[in-house]
Every structure is written in structure tokens, then in C-alpha cells.
Amino acid sequence: MIDPLMFLWPAFLVALCLVGIHAYFGILVLARKVIFVDLALAQIAALGATVAFMLGHPAQSFATYGYSLAFTLLAAVLLAFTRAWGTRVPQEALIGVIYVVAAAAAILLIERAPQGAEHLKQILTGNILTSGLNEVAGIVPLYAAIGLLHWLLRRQMSGTGALFWEFVFYASFGVVVTSSVAIAGVLLVFSFLIVPAAIGVMFASSLARQIVIGWIVGTITSAAGLAASFAFDLPTGAAMVCGFGGALAIAGLLYPFLRGNRQHALRVAIATVRWGFAVILAGSAIQLAAAPRADQPLLDMMEVAAPSLRALYFTRAEQTTFVEASDYAERYHMEAERLNSLEKRNRTEGVAFDDVSVARISSFLKSYGEMRKGEQFVMGEVRARARERVRWSVSLGLLALALASAPIRWRRLWTPGMGQARS
Amino acid sequence: MPDAEEHLGRGRQAVTKGMEAPPRAALPHVKSMVLRFAVIATWLALLSPGFAQERIQVVTTTTDLRSLTEAVGGDRIAAVNLVPASMDAEDYQPKPQDVLRLKNAHMLVRVGLDYDLWIDRLLVQAGKREIARGGPGYVDASFAIAALELRGMSVGPGDGHAHGSGNPHYWLDPKNAEIITGTILEALARIDPANAARYEANRLAFLARLRVKLVEWEEKLAPLKSTPIVAYHNSWPYFARRFRLDFAGFIETKPGVPPSPAHLAGIVKTMRERGVRIVVREPHEPDRDVAFVASKAGASVVILAASVGALPEASDYISLFDVNVEALKSAAAR
Ligand SMILES: [Zn+2]
Fold this sequence. Notes:
The complex is a heterodimer.
Chain A: H1 3-32, H2 37-54, H3 62-81, H4 91-112, H5 116-124, H6 133-152, H7 154-158, H8 163-184, H9 186-203, H10 207-231, H11 236-259, H12 262-290, H13 297-305, H14 316-346, H15 355-405, H16 410-414, H17 418-422
Helix pairs in contact in A: 1-6, 1-8, 1-9, 1-10, 2-3, 2-4, 2-5, 2-8, 3-8, 6-8, 8-9, 9-10, 9-11, 10-11, 11-12, 12-15, 14-15
Chain B: H1 2-20, H2 28-47, E1 56-60, H3 63-73, E2 77-81, H4 96-103, E3 107-110, H5 118-126, E4 138-140, H6 176-191, H7 196-221, E5 228-231, H8 237-243, E6 246-250, H9 261-274, E7 278-281, H10 287-297, E8 300-303, H11 317-333
Parallel strand pairs in B: 1-2, 1-3, 3-4, 5-6, 5-7, 7-8
Helix pairs in contact in B: 1-2, 3-6, 4-5, 6-7, 7-11, 9-10
Bound molecules: zinc ion (ZN).
């Protein structure tokens, strides 16, 4: 049980470092309205590394890093210059173009040297789970230096200033993003950048408070994402990104309670939930009435949660058939797994099976698969027929529930003149 | 029509060679007309049956099948593979040129077992009855192969393959080459019956060479019998069965999904308990994740080629095994 923690704490340290610098940059990025600039810069850096690779430099060499840096600085110049465009064409448009062109150019280059594909993938899809103290040792001095530079230039950085300071901003941000994307991947770095900063901006107005809120949110969310990835056996980066999405959703839900009229917010929230239920119930009712044989997400979910619900609308014969088919399917599955593990053990243990025996095992496995598929077809057919039989009564019931759940003031609809009198 | 173009080119060469000897013609445009007639005449002669033997154009999805097809077809065929050697065939993105290659092909050889599903759509686009499913030039090399790890449509216990029709890396058992080349021979004899005897002789010579090599490989890998090994992707069950190796675990549980912390912890635990000292990676697989696991468990990383050409030294089917056997042997000796 302690083993996964052994992986998780270096990943957590890395996440702390990344949150530290990205929450700050995120606030500046939000202020400049250049949300996707990190994707563009990361892709440009990857393009630079690909060019270096094509020219014969090894993957982790000084030259490759130099090419990445040169490309990033070039992009920074471009971004600083086009700030002035803002009035006619949004700067986001240019950022998007830089991103897609850099991505496409890298693909074209790789077309010439396919062994570069994995190289490019590694630049853009880091895995925070397999990062560790080496990475921390690399990024801490870098981020500290950039942080210090920005503190010294804090007056020039906070506003949107002269061309040169814009260049400094994009160049330093490019250096940060290039290193972080290689460690944590594009998706997670984007989350580190935008979500803590957005929540900070939502709840505070001074830069210092925004950063502190961003750091707290980023730290808690990273820890929660890592814990969820461990507890539910999920890929770490993806779990953390979804965690950040959840954090933003919670902040969005809390905002009206903390910042507005609480009672009004509560009323709106309840109405929203009730409308949500009503729409789901009514949608399920229509789906069942119109296509009883198709997937019924609501009914399927309920049956998975409580299989005994089937007894409500299956006949006795249907129930027997369903249970038998399910038992047989399970039995074939177990038999196939038994044969599979027998064959696997035999690869190294005992006297090796000859090719004829292995061919026989293989054909048995194939038959078990077919038979299992047949039983699953029977189960689906039984259920579809039962649903066809009860389609009208159940969908009417669901519709009634939907109407009851919807926050409509029935009395006002039924009493003529009341609505006008009130208004 | 690359054949025609090729022949035209050849004809042109022959003609210009012939024209060099006589003294310069007085009128250049007469010369060019003579040239043109000569080109057309040569071209027609080359196209006529019996005069020149056209090479059979074969498209294979992977380099492994290309190598095996060349072993049977010899110099009577011209084979191209669609997936470049160093790419993962399981998520290949076809290119427009691939449709053209299929349109010009007389024969298509695919891996099957859901390994190269993308070829189905390309075949529809190419719209060539000859090499479509059921046509005389369509070869599914998995025909008659005893597939391992068949799981029906069920989700297996994370063995790295999304589909249940069996592990598709069957060419990594050298004995399966007998079956694969047999299927290829059948198709070639169907398309080009005149040369059937030649194809058969080619195949027998190749299998004889392979049999000698197999004994050598088995001897070299004998010390590794039951040595536990961990791999990134589950490419090796057929290889393991033939050479009696024990692949104890895989880092990747689902194609394209990074491993979860619990899974990585489980792998490292298995490695420590069973003393795994070798972690196998293919060249296109992420080296950081593999190096991470290897360093946690004190194992060394060995790069093996699961396909011809994935490593530069693995240039054909036989050298593919030579390279892998040598790499494993020297890793075990370390
Ligand atoms: Zn595979």
C-alpha cells in the first residue's frame, strides 16, 4: 500500500513547482487575453527540437535545447510585435495560427524522418507520474531565476507595456512552458496555468491575493488529483486535469454564494437542479417510447446499480432465461481465462505443448468467445423485448416524474388572471 | 501505371544507347521522330507477353510481411510496405500515396487480428476488386495461425490490446513463418501460376535456412529459460512461447493510456519479488517511463525490435531474430 506513495510524492513535488510558477504566469496570461499562448510556445519549442533532431543532434543534447530556445525566442518576438494588432484581429487568432503551423510543420518534418515521431511525442506528452527529483533539481533554479527577474520587473510586467517588455514576458514564459510541458504534458500544463489563476482572479483583485489563492487551489487540487489517480487506479495526468476542471466548476458554483445575494443564488441553484432532473427524465421517457431497443442510459444505469429492478418488468420466464444466459456467459469466460493462463504458464513451465495442442487451445478460445457472444446476444434480446412491452407505461411514468420535478408554478398556470394580477 | 512508365523508361534508355553509335543526324527533328518511333516500338515489344516478365506488385502493411513475401517471391515480385519500419503499426495514419500504391498492386498482405484495421478503409478507397477481401490477391497472413491470448469481446486483464481477437504479434514466432509463407505462396501461385514452382523452391530454401537459425537461437536463449522479463507493450507472447521466456508483466495496460500509479507499483513489486533484471522496450516506446521502472527495481533496459527495420541491424526477418537474441543474451550475461 505504501509503494504507490513512493511514486506519488516526487510527482507531488513537481506539481508544487509547476503550480508555483504557472499560477503567476496564468494571471498575466488571463490579463493579456492570450489563453492558448502556452500551447503555441510549447509547439514551437517542439518544432525547434525536431529541426535539431533532423540535423543529427541527439535528443537531450545542448544543441537541441539551443534550437528549442531559439525558436521560442523567435515566437516571442512575433507575439510581442502583434500585440498592436489587437484592435482589428484578436491576438488569439495569431496564436492559433502559430500553434497549428508549428504542429503541422513538425509533422511534415517527421514525415522525412519517422524515428523523430517518438521524440516529438516525448517533448509534448510528459508524464508527471514518472518525473522525479531530477526534474525538480532542473526546474527549481530556472523558475527561481525567472521569478526573481519578474519580481524586479514587476512594474513592467503587470501592465501591457512597451514592445521590449512584452518580448521579455513571452520569452521567459516560453522557457518555463518548454520545460514544464516536457515534464507534465500539454494538457496538465494548460490546467496548471489557467485554472488556479482563473479562480484567483474570480475571488480577489490584487495580484498578491490572486497568486496566493491560485497557489492554495493548485496545491489542493494537485494533491486530490494524485490521490484519486492512486485510489481509483487512473492515469495520473488525466486524473489531475479532470481534478482541475472539477475545481473550476466548484469555484463557479460557490461564486454566487460568496459574492452575491445568497438566497437568490440558492433559489437559482435549486431551480437549475430541478430543471436538470426534469430534462433527463423527459429525455429518457421519449427515448424509451421512440426506440425501446436502443440504449437507455438512465434505465441501464439503474439496472447496473440495482439488478433486482429487472424483476419489476421481466416475466418469470424472461428472468430465468436472462439469468441462465448470464451464468453461461460467465462460465465460458472463466473457461477461456483458465485456458489462457494454462497456455501462459506452459510457455515456461513443464513440457512445452506442441504446436497442435496450442492450435487446439486457440480454437477452443475462439469458440468460447463466440458462445459467450451468443449468450450476451440472448441477454440483450430478452431485455429489449421486455422493454418493448412496457415502453408506454414506463415512459408515461417517467414523463409524470419529469413534470413533478420541473419547477413550474402549476397553480399560476391554472388560475386565469393570476399571472397578470401579480405582474 | 508505374509498370508502363518503368518500361517506357527502360525503352528510352535502350534507344538512346543505340543512337549514340551512329554519326549525328543532319536534321534534328527527323532524329527526334525516329527516336519517338523507336521508343513506341520498344515499349510495345516490352508489353507483349513472353518478351518481358512483369514483376508482381505486392503491398504489405508491415515490414515483417514484406520481408516474408520477398523470401517467397524472390526477384519475381516488387514489394512495398505501408507502415514505415520505425512506426507503431497499431496506430498508423494512412497517407494519400498509400491508396495509389494499393491501386497499382496485384496482391495485398496484411497482418489481420485487428492489428492493421485501417487497411480496410484504404481498400474501399482504392476500390480494386482483385485485392479486396475475398479477391485472389487478398492475403490475411493470420490465416491458420494459432492465435494466443484470445479473449472474445471481453476486456482482458490489461494485456495491452483493445480487441479480443488474439494477440496480433504472431510473426515473432519463427515457426509461424512456415504458415505465413505458406499462405503467401498459395496467393502467389494463384496470381502467377507459371512461376509457382519457383516460388515453392524459394520458400523451401528460406525455411531450410530458418530451421538452421532456429536451432542456433534456441541454443543461445536456453540460459534465459524462465528468466522473468518485463516489457512495455505485450508484443512478445509468441516469441516467449517459442524460446520459453517468461514475460512477467507489462508497463502499458491499454494502448495509448499512460500507466496508473497502482499499476506501476504492482510492476515494481513483481520485479523486486521475482528478481526481474531485464525491461524490454521497443525503439518507438517512451524511454522515460521504461527507465523509471527499471531504475526503481534495479533492472537494465534492453531495446528489442518487434518488427523488421525497427532497429537498423534488423534488416530482414532472419536478422530481426539475430538482433533480438543477441540483445537478450548479452543482457542476461550482464
Ligand atoms: Zn500490440
